[in-house]
UniProtKB/TrEMBL annotation:
Belongs to the bacterial ribosomal protein bL9 family. Binds to the 23S rRNA. PROSITE patterns: RIBOSOMAL_L9. This is Large ribosomal subunit protein bL9. Transmembrane segments: none annotated. One of its GO terms (cellular component) is ribosome. InterPro entries: Ribosomal_bL9, Ribosomal_bL9/RNase_H1_N, Ribosomal_bL9_bac/chp, Ribosomal_bL9_C, Ribosomal_bL9_C_sf, Ribosomal_bL9_N, Ribosomal_bL9_N_sf. It comes from Leptospira ryugenii. It comes from the Bacteria. GO terms for biological process: translation.
């Protein structure tokens, strides 16, 4: 059965794609969950239109994220933490701490966009990737310093 995908479906396709799937898969899974509709002339035209609009939205979003990436790429952000004896941190530096440091400069970023390689449990400098959009991944430097 030919279906037009309404939403992105893992291992099948993106919204707006016209796919040939097994009848049972379409009737029992895709259509009841509103992930797809049967392909006919009207639905196919509508899907192509939706795909075009989604592409335009994606391009606009990437442009905005590239502007944001230019603001933060390569910059150093300082996170102040409490330390105990032997300069050991109480806990660790989280994505929330890094976002708060970035927020102080007037830039808003979602903490889920941060890609921290290892847990930050010591003082020092750490490279953190910020995955803003597809293909837009600036890198920032997080400097962890002890509270005075």
């Amino acid at each position: 059965m030919k279906v037009v995908l309404q939403k992105d479906v893992l291992n099948l396709g993106d919204a707006g794609d016209v796919k040939e799937v097994a009848d049972g898969y379409a009737r029992n899974f895709l259509i009841p969950r509103r992930l797809a509709v049967r392909a006919n002339d009207g639905n196919t035209k509508m899907a192509l239109h939706q795909k075009k609009l989604a592409g335009l939205k994606r391009e606009k979003r990437v442009k905005v994220m590239k502007d944001l990436a230019a603001q933060i790429d390569g910059k150093t952000y300082e996170v102040t933490v409490k330390v105990g004896e032997n300069q050991k941190l109480f806990g660790s530096v989280t994505g929330n701490d890094v976002v708060n440091a970035i927020r102080k400069t007037g830039v808003e970023i979602d903490k889920r966009k941060l890609e921290i390689a290892d847990t930050i449990k010591n003082l020092g400098e750490y490279k953190v990737k910020v995955r803003l959009a597809e293909g837009v991944v600036p890198q920032i430097l997080v400097k962890v310093v002890a509270e005075a």
